[in-house]
Structure formats: C-alpha cells, structure tokens
Write a structure and sequence with these properties.
With 128 residues, chain A is α+β, with helices and mostly antiparallel strands. Chain A contains three helices and five strands; from the N terminus they run ββαβββαα. Chain A has a five-stranded antiparallel sheet, sandwiched between helices. Chain A starts with a strand and ends with a helix. The model of chain A has no long low-confidence stretch (mean pLDDT 86). Chain B is an alpha/beta fold and 223 residues long. In chain B, the strands form two sheets. In chain B, strands 1, 2, 3, 4, 5, 6, 7 and 12 form an eight-stranded mixed sheet that branches. In chain B, strands 8-11-10-9 form a four-stranded antiparallel sheet, with no helix packed on it. The longest helix of chain B is centred in the middle third of the chain and has 17 residues.
Chain lengths: 128, 223
C-alpha cells in the first residue's frame, strides 16, 4: 500500500485488503509521524523504516521521498529478510518516481473545472 | 487530494480548539447522524478518561461528483496545551479548518491561546489560514455563562485586512442575513472575517451547519 503522509491512501497492489483501508492509511501516517518525533527525541532526524511484528501478520513500513509511505503486509509464508531485501529496491524505484512527480510541480494537477456546481447539491442532500 | 487513478476526491478537515471545547462531541454527533453506509469507523486515540491523546478520525462519504467519489476525512486534535506535537502533526495536508471555541466566559483565555497556537502551527507548515477554508464554531451556546457573540467575535474573529483590490467589495454572509464576511470599516480599511456558527454540540445544534459550510468552502477551492 502507498499512503500519503497526510493519511490518505494512494494505491494498493496484491491481495485486496479485507479491512478498513481508510482507517489503516490514517493510522499508518500517524504511526510514522509519532515515530518521527520519537526519533528526534533520541537525536535522529527520522526513522525511515518501521517494522511491526504480529503472530501471523506483520507489516513493514518505509519512507519514500519524505512524502509517501510504502506499507507491506505479509504473513509467515515469507520472511522478514526477504521482504526487507525486496523493499530496498522498491523504495529506490518509488523514490525516483515520486521525486520526478514532485519536480513537475503541482500546476499539472488542476482540478476538474465546475466541480462545485454538482457538489453543492450533494452536500445539501447528505445533510438533510 | 484528487486521485485520478481511483477517481476519488479526499479532503482533510481538522477540528481545532481548546481542551474540552467539544471537538470530539462534534464528530460523535456527525457519526451518529450520518447514514452508516456513507461513513467509516470513528477512530479515537484517546486516554482512559476519554481525553483525545492523538486524534479522532471519521471519514464521511459525500457521494459521487462528476464521476469522482468525494470523501471528507474529519479529524480532531487534542485540545490540551501540552499535546502540541501531535496537534501539529494532524494539520499536515489539511484542506479546511473548523475552530471550535468554548463560549463560556471563563474559557476566553484558553480560546485565545488555542487560536494563536493554530495560527502558529499553520504557518510552520507554510499554510495561510486567511487564504484557506476556515470557519469558527461558538459551542456551548446553551450554557448560562456563555459570553455574548459580539464579545467572542471581537476576541477570536476580529478579521484580517484585505489587500487585493479585486477582493475589496462587500460579501454578505449567506448564513447570517444583514452581516458581511468582507466589509469596509469606517476607517476605509477592508476586512474579511471567517464565517461563524453558534452550536450546542451535545444536542447537535449547529454541528451540521458548521460541517456543511466548511465542506462547501473546501470544494470551492477545487472548482
């Protein structure tokens, strides 16, 4: 899963998550932010990877270009060593991709014009 | 954030304000009233005494707009002064802010301190609160010790100067007939104030008016 640092899910690949992915993304970003602060307290600038071990499921999180978090969920059919090895290359590739995107700037991401016209009605309807 | 691949618009709205002012209560009321199929789980990272430690989080689905699934992510911050590190983290990537003020006269100092803290934390990220969706909610209007609205407005929403010539024109406040969001002072100076709402979050009064206003402002920035 790719999660934006502000807590929004960007993309998922592999087995579709059978849990609340929105909440998961929010908590992932919070987890990373809290650990950043912990790192600073002990004199590190950040922790660029985090690992959470469970009995069956584990997760490995890595920073990408200081804007995005790559989360890999895996079970005991593989090993931490293999995940870590594969992630190293993936993080390097993704860092290049994201840095390229950020270098292009935000100007290219103009919103769909006239979005509000439809939205006003939708908001009113939801809150009736 | 607009995700073209999954055709989704995700907006982040943060409820800010002093401790025990009713930020979490706002979210709980919304959670209870919105149809279950249009909202996600209400996540609360709180202490044993139900004080918010890190944040509360509630995703609300607005429906589909122009083929994009539109969803608002509502967050609260911990109000207590000493939780500033986590409060600041929540503001990252924010699209709209609701300041929940406690109307009680004895909370005036706490309101001011929190408002100053909001401005400071926003500017640390390079965000300008005067140029983004921002509304103020005066909560606990039902309490006997609630300050008059005019006092609260003067203290927390005195307005900021409008410098752009194109914006120097009277803008009526849609929610308050006879009042203006942008107006000219007798001194000739143009000022803009944030839209404001009165609320009693425990009973839900004003909660959806506030949410609706900030949601509209956020979507306007995308239009």
């Amino acid at each position: 899963m790719l999660v934006d640092r502000s807590g929004q899910l960007v993309a998922t690949v592999g087995e579709p998550p059978n849990f609340d992915a929105t909440a998961f993304a929010t908590l992932t970003a919070a987890d990373f932010s809290a650990n950043d602060q912990l790192a600073r307290l002990i004199g590190e600038s950040d922790f660029n990877v985090l690992f959470h071990q469970g009995e069956r499921e584990s997760m490995y999180l890595a920073d990408v270009a200081r804007r995005v978090i790559l989360v890999v969920l895996f079970d005991n059919r593989t090993t931490l060593g293999l995940v870590r090895l594969k992630m190293k290359g993936a993080v390097e590739d993704l860092t290049r991709v994201f840095e390229g995107i950020f270098a292009r700037g935000v100007g290219a991401q103009a919103a769909t014009p006239g979005l509000l016209a439809g939205a006003e009605d939708e908001i009113d309807r939801l809150f009736q | 954030m607009i995700n073209y691949a999954s055709r989704e618009i995700n907006c982040k709205i943060v409820f800010y304000g002093p401790g025990l002012g009713g930020k979490t209560t706002n979210l709980e009321y919304i959670y209870g009233k919105v149809a279950p199929n249009t909202r996600g789980k209400l996540i609360s990272l709180a202490t044993e005494t139900e004080r918010t430690l890190f944040f509360d989080f509630l995703p609300v689905d607005l429906g589909t707009i122009r083929g994009f699934r539109t969803r608002f992510h509502l967050y609260t911050v911990p109000g207590q002064v000493y939780y500033n590190a986590s409060r600041k983290l929540i503001l990252k990537g924010v699209d709209g802010v609701v300041f929940v003020a406690d109307s009680q006269a004895e909370r005036a100092e706490a309101n001011l301190e929190s408002m100053q803290n909001l401005y400071d934390n926003m500017s640390a990220y390079g965000y300008d609160l005067t140029r983004m969706p921002f509304v103020i909610q005066y909560n606990k209007r039902d309490l006997p010790n609630a300050s008059p609205l005019a006092t609260l407005q003067e203290m927390l929403n005195p307005g900021w100067e409008v410098t752009e010539p194109s914006r120097k024109r009277a803008v009526p406040d849609a929610a308050r007939p006879g009042e203006f969001l942008v107006s000219q002072l007798p001194t000739g100076e143009w000022v803009e104030r944030a839209p404001y709402f009165e609320a009693v979050a425990v009973s839900g009064d004003g909660v959806f008016d506030t949410l609706k206003a900030v949601s509209k402002l956020v979507l306007k920035t995308l239009a």
